[in-house]
């Protein structure tokens, strides 16, 4: 790493900056200290001193609603006018030739142009857009009543422009393109604006430049390129404020004359009743288009933003060469990464542009990763690991459908077919038919430094470059097949009464019931967000691990304790359904983008606790507005016969069955062999092997780098297994069999030889990095798991299991004895070849 640092050619790296970029980072971007932030195309962070300057401005001035006579109002008006001019100058736009309209963001600017163009001519308008466009630009086509065309390449645009001269039309035409692709950073030719205008020769052809991505790391000189409309968002340049602009060439202002809507300050006089008459403001384009009260505080913030930016970085040109230099470093270093067999690790998606050349290429890199066998590494797996390593990138189609499809070679027909089978933006269908559905994107910003590039390349090298051929795992049992010598037993039993919260360890010596849907009382409740209705997960709220429920069967209560020993609070609720404060609700699982829920309908019915005491208990502890909810018992709704016993809580509950749940008299669905099971309750029991946890910990220690707690062993609890199985070794010195569970087909447990089927491996995410006793996140064990337990692109640890259907064959569920397990029970696995 240090070698790379000394090779820095100072010519491009932070040239013109107020000081060394590392110093700027230290002083003004302390939030970036412990993270590798490479999502500047999403938003760049704001400088600390900018917020301080803005805060001082706000606390030392009284700003009133603009456009009246009071002093405070006058102050806001003048400041707004000043900032408007300042922004125009920032883009070298002559105020005689251009006007600036403040809008919410780039999308609002684009939509404003489209809406006005539609109103401007009764025939509507024609629309052309470049394939590399952001969704906000593509969407305009829905308003284009006179047809639209997507230009699939630069050449198509170049061929179309000369045709404009001979092909004049009365109705307006609009051509839109991004100044820079937000997908791969390619910079498109700005000369098109001028070329189109001269070819159309006064005809009704307008150009819309989506500059949102470009302006984040490049100067934009509107005096030379002069698009009719330019859309951008300021947060992408300065990090703050959340505000956008539409910059209009005044000579194209006629487009706005027939805009139908008016509101707030955009009119001179309105008759509210009687005749439908109003007089629009004639004075300027922005006065006619800025409806309602301007976001004047945000506009004032822009003043501090521009000043601070200039003070730190000097100019956009400096930022452009700094980021171009770093992007070239990143690109060059990623493209030479090779596996042991000389195959490339990164497939980089770019146009015919050159990294390091700011005219054609911005500092964004889109790519995917392959294994030495040429298989694509799923993007969500990379994202999970990056998250654990505190690296922030973006994945998916990054709002650039055309660019993504082109890069990955998808046709529209293919994408529609995949959509109809469930592919959605942001979901985890990473690879379909052997091809990736999205990309990984690393994007740089003004304050990106060499360390960020080093960390990112190191990350790819450490986790994705296969230096030696993968070792084919030996089947552990084939060697000495003497399973009788090997005794597995239940080391511990846990249930998680509240989904995603702490474990309740079943006391030793107590037999615990196993049902079809898992261990009794496991995931019976969950916490739901009171606004969205979505179930909370520990992945997002690690403090949930500190919410510890315990089941007291004797008293018929669930006792929930929160927090550390010193300041614990607790709550007791009944295990029965007689609690009258229950209200019904439904859980929208779509918010988690799981395909599973589409299979069984969008909603799972739930019963939320209406008591304010209950919701306050959890909301106060987590700092999230939430409440407790209870799942309907799956055995009642789904698997059991119609009721014969009355008066049990299950029966009382039956009347609550809601849409999306299964009718009560449906026979248990037969489990199809090989079919991926979809509902969580079909993966009822999670089995974790102590020997595997031990092996994993040895690996973590052996591979540990320097750093606080880096090589510390992890507790088996992080895997949140229901049954932890350990080995009782026959002779001293016998070796354990880590990962023997990979080959298990079934288990027999305890004195009654309870039959358990072993199902899929449990796919892991960064949640295993949350210490279940402190609620703190670390990078292990996920980092080591990703290296050592990557099975078919998925990180797996532990096996799901369920009571075997044989247990129920020909039996009446309610009539038979309870099936139970206990800590210490002997476990006899059966093995399958896989
Ligand atoms: C970010 C971006 C947009 C959308 O910006 P919003 O602030 O979300 O409106 C549009 N186009 C490009 C090229 C972008 O990068």
Automatic annotation (TrEMBL):
The active site is at 399. It catalyses: Mo-molybdopterin + L-cysteine + AH2 = thio-Mo-molybdopterin + L-alanine + A + H2O. The modification N6-(pyridoxal phosphate)lysine is found at residue 236. One of its GO terms (molecular function) is molybdenum cofactor sulfurtransferase activity. Its EC number is 2.8.1.9. Its cofactor is pyridoxal 5'-phosphate. Residues 637-830 form the MOSC domain. One of its GO terms (biological process) is Mo-molybdopterin cofactor biosynthetic process. Keywords: Molybdenum cofactor biosynthesis, Pyridoxal phosphate, Transferase. It comes from the Eukaryota. It holds the Pfam family Aminotran_5. Sulfurates the molybdenum cofactor. Sulfation of molybdenum is essential for xanthine dehydrogenase (XDH) and aldehyde oxidase (ADO) enzymes in which molybdenum cofactor is liganded by 1 oxygen and 1 sulfur atom in active form. Belongs to the class-V pyridoxal-phosphate-dependent aminotransferase family. MOCOS subfamily. This is Molybdenum cofactor sulfurase.
């Amino acid at each position: 790493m240090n070698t790379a640092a000394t090779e820095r050619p100072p010519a491009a790296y932070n040239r013109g900056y107020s000081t060394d970029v590392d110093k700027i980072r230290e002083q003004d971007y302390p939030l970036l200290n412990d993270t590798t932030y490479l999502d500047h195309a999403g938003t760049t962070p704001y400088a600390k001193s900018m917020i301080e300057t803005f805060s001082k401005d706000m606390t030392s001035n009284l700003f009133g609603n603009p456009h009246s006579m009071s002093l405070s109002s006058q102050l806001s008006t003048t400041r707004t006018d000043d900032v408007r001019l300042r922004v125009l100058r920032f883009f070298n736009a002559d105020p005689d030739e251009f006007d600036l309209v403040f809008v919410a963001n780039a999308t609002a600017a684009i939509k404003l142009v489209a809406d006005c163009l539609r109103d401007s001519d009764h025939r509507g308008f024609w629309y052309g857009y470049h394939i590399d466009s952001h969704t906000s630009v593509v969407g305009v086509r829905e308003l284009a009543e006179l047809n639209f065309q997507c230009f699939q390449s630069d050449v198509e645009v170049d061929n179309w422009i000369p045709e404009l001269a001979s092909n004049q039309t009365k109705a307006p035409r609009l051509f839109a393109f991004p100044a820079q692709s937000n997908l791969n950073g390619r910079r498109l030719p700005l000369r098109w604006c001028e070329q189109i205008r001269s070819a159309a020769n006064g005809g009704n052809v307008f150009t819309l430049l989506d500059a949102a991505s470009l302006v984040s790391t490049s100067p934009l000189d509107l005096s030379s390129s002069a698009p009719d409309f330019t859309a951008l968002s300021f947060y992408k340049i300065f990090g703050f404020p959340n505000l956008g602009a539409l910059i209009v060439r005044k000579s194209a202002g006629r487009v706005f004359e027939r805009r139908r809507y008016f509101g707030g300050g955009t009119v001179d006089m309105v008759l509210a009743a009687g005749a439908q008459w109003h007089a629009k403001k004639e004075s300027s384009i922005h006065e006619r288009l800025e409806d309602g009260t301007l976001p004047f505080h945000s506009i004032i913030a822009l003043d501090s933003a521009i000043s601070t930016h200039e003070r730190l970085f000097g100019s956009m040109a400096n930022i452009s060469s700094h980021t171009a230099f770093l992007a070239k470093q990143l690109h060059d270093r990623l493209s030479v990464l090779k596996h042991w067999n000389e195959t490339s690790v990164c497939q980089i998606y770019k146009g015919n542009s050159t990294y390091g050349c700011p005219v054609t290429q911005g500092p964004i890199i889109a790519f995917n990763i392959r294994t030495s066998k040429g298989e694509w590494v799923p993007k969500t797996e990379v994202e999970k690991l990056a998250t654990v390593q505190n690296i922030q990138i973006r994945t998916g189609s990054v709002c650039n459908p055309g660019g993504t499809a082109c890069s990955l070679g998808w046709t529209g027909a293919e994408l529609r077919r995949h959509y109809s089978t469930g592919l959605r933006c942001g979901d985890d269908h990473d690879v379909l038919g052997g091809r990736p559905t999205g990309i990984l994107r690393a994007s740089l910003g003004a304050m990106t430094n060499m360390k960020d590039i080093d960390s990112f390349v190191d990350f790819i090298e450490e986790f994705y470059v296969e230096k030696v051929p993968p070792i084919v795992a030996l089947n552990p049992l084939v060697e000495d097949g003497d399973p009788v010598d090997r005794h597995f037993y239940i080391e511990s039993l846990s249930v998680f009464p509240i989904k995603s919260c702490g474990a309740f360890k079943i006391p030793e010596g107590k037999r615990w019931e196993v049902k079809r849907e898992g261990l009794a009382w496991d995931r019976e409740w969950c916490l739901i967000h009171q606004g969205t209705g979505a179930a909370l997960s520990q992945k997002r709220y690690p403090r949930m691990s500190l919410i510890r429920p315990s089941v007291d069967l004797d008293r018929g209560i669930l006792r929930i304790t929160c927090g550390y020993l010193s300041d614990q609070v607790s709550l007791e609720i009944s295990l029965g359904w007689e609690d009258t404060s229950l209200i019904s609700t439904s859980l929208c699982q779509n918010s988690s983008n799981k395909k599973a829920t589409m299979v069984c309908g969008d909603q799972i019915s739930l019963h939320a606790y209406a008591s304010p005491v209950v919701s306050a208990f959890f909301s106060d502890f987590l700092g999230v507005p939430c409440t407790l909810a209870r799942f309907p018992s799956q055995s009642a709704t789904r698997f059991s016969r119609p009721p014969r016993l009355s008066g049990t809580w299950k029966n009382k509950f039956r009347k609550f069955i809601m849409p999306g749940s299964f009718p009560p008299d449906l026979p248990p669905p037969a489990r199809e062999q090989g079919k991926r099971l979809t509902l969580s309750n079909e993966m009822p029991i999670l089995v974790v092997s102590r020997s595997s946890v031990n092996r994993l910990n040895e690996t973590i220690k052996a591979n540990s780098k320097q750093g606080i707690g880096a090589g510390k062993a992890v507790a088996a609890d992080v895997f949140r297994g229901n049954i932890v199985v350990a080995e009782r070794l026959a002779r001293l010195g016998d070796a354990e069999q880590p990962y023997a569970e990979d080959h298990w087909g079934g288990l027999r447990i305890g004195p009654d030889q309870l039959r358990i089927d072993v199902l899929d491996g449990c796919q892991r995410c960064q949640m295993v990095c949350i210490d279940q006793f402190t609620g703190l996140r670390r990078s292990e064990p996920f980092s080591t798991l990703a290296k050592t337990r990557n099975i078919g692109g998925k990180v797996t640890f532990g096996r799901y299991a369920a009571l075997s259907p044989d247990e129920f064959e020909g039996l009446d569920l309610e009539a038979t004895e309870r099936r139970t397990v206990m800590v210490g029970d002997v476990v006899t696995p059966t093995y399958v070849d896989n």
